[in-house]
Write a structure and sequence with these properties.
With about 400 residues, the protein is α+β, with helices and mostly antiparallel strands. The protein is built from eleven helices and 22 strands. It has a seven-stranded mixed beta sheet. It has a six-stranded mixed beta sheet with strand order 8-2-1-12-21-20, with helices on one face. A three-stranded antiparallel beta sheet has the order 3-7-4.
């Protein structure tokens, strides 16, 4: 199709990635960001072979590999008995796959630096509130600009997804988490996400996340699950009381807890679940968390967003009109998104819920299935994000991880 004038709302990973692809294809791209300066939000995340393949297609794989921590396995055990509850190994399939844990600032920095280097315009302090036939409006109803295509990459709190052909909003999940980015401490597995569980109501985790920037220290993401409504009660009981609860379940965590001197160091994350039936409308495409959000239990959020960005750019490259591109984009991502949204919805209550039965099933059944073929291979593909192939329909081929 002819070169388009494209407005991208949101300077997160999805918005930056799709901006790079479309700019390189010759389209006139402008990114709109509500903050006065683009910046990352959050602590650590786990990049999967899916998201890493998209970064490779952008020429950025080596940059993120230099910052992240290579993850070979996910291991979880019962805090009281020590029984293994979860043991997923990427390498069980023999294809060289691995995860890469990164600080959100590292992923943001790699993409943002590429956008700046290619001189893609970013308009800051712009709160996009509405859209009408490609025209964007701010919160005062003033026009921001007219575009052939608007891409909503503004995340879980999107104001534009209500314009989707079939609109819906996330349903809050009962459990969230306290997160903190802390200095790495020896004595923990530097190649694994390690978790401790108390039934399904408490989950504690330590994830090595590499460096936020090349000269920075090695870091870890530390998290503790709780209901967001209980956060103020926990704070009122005091920091020492909370630390005592953690240490009673996982004494070795003192190496990280000693670094926390105030609740201000902890970020309360809230999660929701939703999937737009069709993440598009007239002159509007919706990608990333704005289009679909879920519990972080399977570690797919940022990876799904990058796949969306690659799919939309590929759809635009392969079709003759904006309308055709939007239809193609929705079709490309339909089954992969729905499969992993369903898996997340199914598995999350086993690890974060008030149920007394589900954690018993988890401890007795899931751990056993993880040891009997093809259980380990299925779990590895599920975590890697490839249980349903996301690559072929969006014009990508998975990177050959054995070459590393």
């Amino acid at each position: 199709m002819d070169k388009l004038k494209i407005g991208i709302v949101g300077a997160g990973p999805a918005g930056l990635a799709v901006a790079l692809r479309l700019h390189r294809a010759g389209h006139a791209v402008t990114i709109f960001e509500r903050f006065d300066a683009p910046k990352p939000v959050g602590s650590g995340l786990l990049m999967q072979p899916t998201g890493l393949t998209v970064l490779h297609s952008l020429g950025l794989l080596s940059h993120i590999l230099a910052l992240g921590a290579r993850i070979e396995r996910l291991h979880g055990s019962d805090a009281l008995s020590g029984r293994t509850v979860l043991d997923v190994r990427y390498g069980v399939r023999g294809d060289g796959r691995f995860g890469l844990a990164v600080h959100r600032a590292a992923l943001f920095g790699v993409l943002y630096d590429a956008v700046v280097a290619e001189r893609i315009p970013i308009a800051t302090s712009q709160t996009v509130e509405a859209i009408e036939d490609g025209m964007l409006f701010d919160e005062r109803g003033q026009r921001i600009g007219a575009f052939d295509l608007v891409i909503d990459a503004s995340g879980a709190r999107s104001r534009l997804r209500r314009y989707a052909d079939v609109a819906s909003e996330p349903k809050p999940l009962p459990y969230g988490a306290f997160w903190a980015s802390l200095d790495w401490r020896e004595g923990f597995d530097a190649t694994a996400l390690v978790q401790r569980y108390r039934k399904a109501s408490v989950m504690i985790g330590v994830l090595p996340i590499g460096r936020a920037e090349p000269s920075g220290p090695k870091m870890a993401a530390f998290f503790w699950s709780l209901k967001p409504g209980d956060a103020e009660t926990v704070k009122a009981e005091g920091l020492d009381a909370w630390k005592a609860r953690v240490l009673a379940l996982w004494p070795e965590c003192s190496a990280f807890l000693d670094q926390i001197v105030s609740f201000d160091q902890l970020t309360l994350a809230r999660y929701g679940h939703h999937t737009l039936q069709r993440p598009a409308a007239r002159k509007l495409a919706i990608i990333g968390d704005a289009a679909h959000s879920a519990s972080p239990q399977l570690g797919q959020g940022a990876n799904m967003a990058l796949l969306d960005a690659a799919a939309l750019a590929h759809a635009i490259e392969q079709t003759a009109s904006v309308e055709d591109a939007l239809a193609a984009y929705c079709g490309m991502r339909h089954w992969h998104i729905r499969a992993f949204q369903a898996l997340s919805f199914l598995f999350t209550p086993f690890y974060q819920s008030d149920s007394t039965l589900l954690p018993i099933v988890r401890d007795r059944l899931v751990a056993v299935l993880a040891t009997i073929p093809p259980g380990p291979q299925v779990l590895a593909a599920m975590v890697a994000g490839t249980l349903v192939d996301p690559f072929a329909r969006i014009g990508l081929r998975e990177y050959d991880w054995r070459s590393l």
